[in-house]
Amino acid sequence: MWLSIPHSSVTDLPEGTYQSDKMNSGEPIGLNNNLKNVFSIIEENGEPVLKITGEIFGCISSKASYSNYHLSVLFKWGDKKWEPRLDKKRDSGILYHCYGPHGRFWNTWKTCLEYQVQESDLGDFIPLGGNSAKPKVGSPITDIRGGFKEEKRFDPNSEVYSEGKGYIHAASEHDKPHGEWNLLEIYVIGNNAVHLVNGEIVMVVENARKHDGTILNEGEIQIQSEAAECYYKQLTLTPIKKFPKFISKNVRFKE
């Protein structure tokens, strides 16, 4: 696991721990130092659940890199929120095809593709670059259907592709009420990915490349802590050789 810079409002930290209102400057806590028990495994109804307090920005990370898989996990929100997002939507995220050193983005996450996990925004897409790296590193490059003239939103019916820069909204929202479990899924084949929320296809990310233009078809997986209490359970990662029929039938990939 990796923890970033604790916000200045966080209490009961070891003496000398660097804190700041800005997460993107200063010395992060770093690897394998689970201060404040930000990440823990609890038991709920007889099964293990990953609890993320969100009190300090950070992530848990796979050690291995993965390609060609189906990721499935159940997710729900808790009630607590923390600075600096007390007045913002609850936020987390599943980061895939992660590469490079820890803390490249905001001293917290790797360069990657993000399946956004945010209130009313499940399955949105964000490419995270390396704004904390020296020198800075650009974000991954992707192609997403949609004209993006009025709003950056994936449009499965569009004949136009746009470069997937910045925050891209999902085609539709399928969040369950607060406190209920949501099924989050990512299907990955090569450098194409499909985001699903509660069984509905909401985002298709195509032709992913690293900032230098080389193909981005594998990477580590991270789960974010981002100022909101949340829970994950029943996470599975299943190798696949091709997209399942329901995706091939309903998704138009670039030829």
Automatic annotation (TrEMBL):
It holds the Pfam family 3keto-disac_hyd. One of its GO terms (molecular function) is hydrolase activity. Gene3D superfamilies: Exo-inulinase, domain 1. Residues 45-237 form the 3-keto-alpha-glucoside-1,2-lyase/3-keto-2-hydroxy-glucal hydratase domain. This is 3-keto-alpha-glucoside-1,2-lyase/3-keto-2-hydroxy-glucal hydratase domain-containing protein.
